[in-house]
Design goal:
The complex is a heterodimer of chains A (113) and B (106).
Chain A (H helix, E strand, L loop, with lengths): L3 E4 L2 E4 L5 E7 L5 E7 L5 E9 L2 E4 L6 E3 L9 E3 L8 E8 L8 E2 L3 E5 L1
Parallel strand pairs in A: 2-11
Antiparallel strand pairs in A: 1-3, 3-8, 4-5, 4-9, 5-6, 7-8, 9-10, 9-11
Chain B lengths: L3 E4 L2 E5 L4 E7 L5 E7 L5 E6 L3 E5 L2 E6 L4 E6 L8 E8 L3 E3 L3 E6 L1
Parallel strand pairs in B: 2-11
Antiparallel strand pairs in B: 1-3, 3-8, 4-5, 4-9, 6-7, 7-8, 9-10, 9-11
Classes of the chains: A mainly beta (113), B mainly beta (106).
């Protein structure tokens, strides 16, 4: 089935550790995105990429890093520099362009313990 | 950046009731989408609606781009309609409102 797969679904991290969230899509979309969602709030854009080997910072990129080595994959690393990383992380993809629907994965819950 | 405001923040409905959710945005946009987030966190596209009116079953949406608002109508609500409804607008990036939490009681 076509779609976006995020893993792991649940992740616990100790303070000071980096963690990488996986996002894979088989929709043949050029654009991929990472969003963060905190309880009771909307989604905030962390990073996005419109083409392989290129990505742009979103509104809250500090403490995060990404790579886009393959069209299908857009992993997000939450670094130890992110001061409040506990949140729900959503990956999404779309065809490039303003007039296209964006599709989301099922999300990853990250808890810092 | 563009501001997206959704109202009401919370809505409690009895099964079978109708309701209207509103999304206001502060600048002209290229497109607007409505999403439903289920209790497990999954976001599902409901409508891509930069202007005009669309219907999908018991849901319909209307966007009046010149007046910078969109409305989502839920008719004959069911318990499965519970969740959070988000509006998102695109000018150079997709910006989300804070959502409307809908609870439908049997």
């Amino acid at each position: 089935d076509g779609g976006i797969t995020q893993s792991p679904k649940y992740l616990f991290r100790k303070e000071g550790q980096n963690v990488t969230l996986s996002c894979e899509q088989n929709l043949n979309h050029d654009a991929m995105y990472w969003y963060r969602q905190d309880p009771g709030q909307g989604l905030r854009l962390i990073y996005y990429s419109q083409i392989v080997n290129d990505f742009q910072k979103g509104d809250i990129a500090e403490g995060y890093s990404v790579s886009r080595e393959k069209k299908e994959s857009f992993p997000l690393t939450v670094t130890s520099a992110q001061k409040n990383p506990t949140a729900f992380y959503l990956c999404a993809s779309s065809i490039v362009g303003a007039g296209n629907t964006i599709y989301f994965g099922e999300g990853s819950w990250l808890t810092v313990v | 950046g563009i501001q997206v405001e959704q109202s009401p923040p919370d809505l409690i409905l009895q099964e079978g009731a109708n309701s209207t959710l509103r999304c206001n945005f502060s600048d002209s946009v290229n497109n607007l989408q409505w999403f439903h987030q289920n209790p497990w966190g999954q976001l599902i596209n409901l409508f891509y609606i930069p202007s005009g009116t669309k219907q999908n079953g018991r849901l319909s949406a209307t966007t009046v781009a010149t007046e910078r608002y969109s409305l989502l109508y839920i008719s004959s609500s069911q318990t499965t309609d519970s969740g959070v409804y988000f509006c998102a607008v695109y000018n150079y990036k997709l910006s989300f409102g804070a959502g409307t939490t809908v609870t439908v009681r049997a």
